Amino acid sequence: MDAQIAPEGHLEVLSKAEVARLWDTSHGGLYQLFRSCALAVLNCGSGLDDGKELLERYKSFDISIVQRERGIKLDVKAAPASAFVDGVMIKGIQEHLFAVLRDILFIDGEILKNAHIDLETTEGVTDAVFHILRNANLLQPQISPNLVVCWGGHSISGHEYDYTKIVGYHLGLRAMDICTGCGPGAMKGPMKGATIGHAKQRIENGRYLGVSEPGIIAAEAPNPIVNDLVILPDIEKRLEAFVRMAHAIVVFPGGAGTAEEILYLLGILLHPDNAQMPFPVIFTGPASAADYFKQIDQFILATLGAEAQSKYQIIIDDPVKVAREVQAGIKTVRSYRKQHGDAYYYNWLLKIDREFQHPFAPTHENMRGLALHKNQPAHLLAANLRRAFSGVVAGNVKDQGIRAIEQYGHFEICGDPDIMHAMDILLDSFVKQTRMKLPGKAYIPCYKVIK
Predict the structure, then answer these.
(1) Is 54 in contact with 61 (CB distance < 8 Å)?
(2) 200: number of CA atoms within 13 Å, CB side?
(3) What is the pLDDT of residues 161-203, one digit of tens each?
(4) pTM (two decimals)
(5) Which InterPro entries match (predicted)?
(6) d(Cα 175, Cα 346) in Å, to the nearest integer?
(7) What is the rounded distance in angstroms from the CA atom of residue 60 to the CA atom of residue 404?
């Protein structure tokens, strides 16, 4: 379908010079990035999680900026019909389109081309993430800690999805706001549940934050419940945004992407500088997910050790207990931040090692070269394990990763035999439980574990 849409809020009032800059920039090197992200937003709810297939299915799709005296419009051509109701674009999707435009232009002009932000230093990356989140209006300084980040897979069973809604409902009843990767499955369920909890408590300003990045947005198109969307430039900055904003993290069942998130978080919490910092982390799912979390727990023990296990608790089939534990944990976080003078809205004191910030390109050479051995500190092993799972995610759903697999074959993952054995068991369980791709699609592995 075709449409012309106008922005509301952030991009509604622009000077002539700003409109001209948007026009020039959007028709330059950023256009293809903007087009692919916009298409993913418009494709919300389609059941497609393959970036390459999405771009090929909608080859005729186009989006351009229309200059006007009082601002801009977006001219959309051949967009997915699912983004419209009776010929009118769904308002939430319309807002997401302008959020994508806002973030892509801001990152290019104010972050990547800003001489005052050094992305080669840990402080520079943390500062960049802060500026991107602030520009998107996600940092709210007058709110007491209440933001729960929920992680989990986009490919989960209906029973697991219903469980995420119930957990979200009980969090919403306790006035918790929700932040997820913004896609379907375990990223949508908690938001959906929280809206009911908020409605019952007459909370009219509930926040449902979605955090994405260009490589993953096609596989995890923002669901329309998200009322604040932000696009970070890469997966590492996306993950840092999650942990800097979070007051607690709840992990639902998922696949390789969820394992990547878990390893990223545990690697940070294992850093000696973060040893005393309270950071509530709960793994949870229905009774049918007990074996899933047992496998995750065993993998963590086999690779990172008992200290890593101490950084989280597993709660099975008890949404009320999850919500109560989150609430209690956040009270501890609030007390700690107040005592140490840290902001409630952005965890500046959290130490994030450079190894967790440097963008990892999942090429065949880089995947083969990962240091997957125990002759290193546990938090650095976690960083490398995270990269391995990031490569699997890329080969599964990202356009560039899928094309690399088609051209050069499987990613090869190699390392210590014990670690490879544990990884092979875990990845194989994801395949058997259909957690790698959406149901109905035969999964062809993009990786090979070398024992």
Answers:
(1) no
(2) 11
(3) 999 999 999 999 999 999 999 888 999 999 999 999 999 999 9
(4) 0.91
(5) LOG_fam (IPR031100), LOG_family_nucleotidases (IPR052341), PpnN (IPR049788), PpnN-like_sf (IPR037153), PpnN_C (IPR021826), PpnN_N (IPR027820)
(6) 19
(7) 24
